[in-house]
Amino acid sequence: MNKRVYLLTIVSFVVGMVELIIGGVLDLVAKDLNVTIGKAGFLISIFSLVFAIAAPVLLTLTAKIERKRLTLLALLVFLLGNGLAVFSTTYTLLLTARIVSAISGSLLVVLCVTIASNIVAEKYRARAIGVVFMGISASLVLGVPIGLMLGNAFGWRAPFILIMILTLLSIAGVYFFMDPIHPRPSIPLKMQLRTLKNRKIFYAQLTSFLFLTGHLTFYGYLTPFLKNTMGLNGTWVSIVYLIFGLAAVVGGGVGGTLGDRFGTKPTILGVIVVFAFSIFSIPYTITSMPLFLAVMVIWSMLSWAITPAMQSYLIESAPESSDIQQSLNNSALHFGIAFGSFIGGIVIERSSVETNPTVGGLFIIFALATAFISMGSIKVKSLFTTLNNESN
């Protein structure tokens, strides 16, 4: 496989880091900019929301621009967005920086996937795309602990300085090692959305959205939860996030293995059920650190174990539009991150952070329901067809 794919993986890792890297330093941002924790949490929501919306739209608008040139331009805008974050002295300025980073970052992820599929032989195409998405997954789970450690040591702006350095290295890598790539005809946005008319696909995508919503309702506010309910200091919070990140990365591999061995449907349903038990039980483990860590490891592993199984399920369900479904699933995940962090902010403002796991668990129950609807839709359709044929 072409080694330049790993350069694209680094780019996708850098972009993914920005989305949740601020989650671990929410309290530092809130204190410095004189806003509430809930309002600071909206900085995650706005990034994910803009990211989910901008990706398919920008892909269509930039369809005729040469890919290497467009990647360099997007990286430059991404650099400027994070530079603006570093020098932000007000909440409004930081919010603007997050929007700029999200717009450019969403396009970069799509470009990484597109370029990766172009620079490898057809037999390596799926593997190349998987490697690029591995960078995104790793960044989403490791971005917070990295941001937390840097933030506690050097202030909340330090993580964004790291992002700027990595972005500059990415610009140099793309400029010197990537060849010009002519664009291919893009799939119109209407055609992408039209695939959601399939009930099975729609409810599968809705499952991803609800699952991430439930997860982020709690995970987006894990720092104040650990500090307020367990009295942990910055060092221990960093350790907890690091354990979470490592367990989540392992969980992605476990989810893929379970899907191959037991099938995608049992894996998806099983992961959601156990995940629901773990998130509901977390508030009852805070009096025992070993018990909390044990439950948290299960929770963190399962948070990403569902992703490979769900992507395989979408490919099985709609092989003729598998590329579109992967793109839409990526948007569904980011909509879930946005909505979950938004809901979590409301909960922490109206009630307390101790309530966040329970509210998040309720969304997981809804995700289980939509998963059952998706997986049962073929049987329902077949039964309806059979009865219709017999009546005729």
Describe it for me?
With 392 residues, the chain is mostly helical. Residues 378-387 have low confidence and may be disordered. It folds into 2 domains: 1-186, MFS general substrate transporter like domains (Growth Hormone, Chain: A, Up-down Bundle), CATH 1.20.1250; 192-385, MFS general substrate transporter like domains (Growth Hormone, Chain: A), CATH 1.20.1250. It has helices spanning 4-20, 26-33, 37-61, 67-86, 91-119, 125-154, 158-177, 189-194, 199-219, 222-229, 234-262, 264-281, 289-317, 322-350, 356-391. It is globular, with a radius of gyration of 21 Å. Helix 11 (234-262) runs parallel beside helix 13. It contains 15 helices and no strands.
When the domains are counted, the total is: 2
Average pLDDT score: 85
What is the fold named in CATH at topology level of the largest domain?
Growth Hormone, Chain: A
User: What is the number of helical segments per DSSP (H or I, 4+ residues)?
Assistant: 15
**Major sheet:** none
Q: Would you identify the CATH architecture of the largest domain? A: Up-down Bundle
CATH superfamily of the largest domain: MFS general substrate transporter like domains
Terminus-to-terminus distance: 55 Å
Q: Helix and strand string, N-terminal first?
A: HHHHHHHHHHHHHHH
* Secondary-structure-derived class: mainly alpha
| pLDDT < 50 runs, ≥5 residues | 378-387
Q: Which CATH class of the largest domain?
A: Mainly Alpha
Question: In what range is the share of β-strand residues?
Answer: under 5%
